[in-house]
Amino acid sequence: MILIKLGGSVITDKSEYKRFRKDVVSRLCREIKESGKSVMIVHGAGSFGHVLAKRSELHEGHLRNDQINALAIVSRDVRELNNMVVSELIEAGIPSVSVPTGSCFVMDDGKLIINDTEVISRYVELGIVPVMFGDVVLDRRKGFGICSGDSVMMSLADLFSPEKAVFVSDIDGLYDRDPKTANDAKFISDVNENILSGIPTETTVADVTGGVRAKMRAMLDMCSDGRDCILVNGTEDGRLLSLLKGKDVKCTRARK
Ligand code: IP8
Questions:
Q1: Bridge partners of residue 228, in order along the sequence
Q2: What pLDDT is attached to residue 202?
């Protein structure tokens, strides 16, 4: 089984509140179908989650009562996004079902707790792909918090031991600087702890869950038992399909 995260930057236009990239998602779902691989899917929140979550500091836990309405709105918005992703998967011929992270699981001080995997496992046994996502999740200590799709990926990787974990983003992989602002940014096809520690932290991302660096951190944690963890550009036609088929494509691999 291959665990795939469709990143918020590829499935939404992050510059505009709730702008879904239907064409891109539709193509990615067809690529997944054509690969013939068995998959589990997670997706990010993009502009359906981060803008309002950041404004209301939902990632800091329950601080004020005016956060409660924001919690409800962000939860609604990411479910709206999830429904659209599930619809595109079904259209592509992949029977899928929504498993909302915040409705099925809780966190403990920011860590997602999935004690009971029965629902997910039973869907998989039936040949149905469970689709989880970055969400507002109740937290035993902080009241609530934001659980990123990357944390969901880490929990699912621990529980289901996928052969590969693939993070689909809107960039080719990791650069030593932000390629959107630095023309001479150097591409890094293999990342390890040393290389990552030399890369500057982004300060400009409107992202409550940390951007590319946090993703690389999660990838390095997930590849500890020899699993392949890969970041690939989903805005390029056919690149995800080639990767899933085991071809050599431009991407960044995390290595211990
Ligand atoms: O886009 C964030 O998930 P991510 C979830 O995977 C929310 O980091 C609600 C902002």
A1: 164
A2: 63
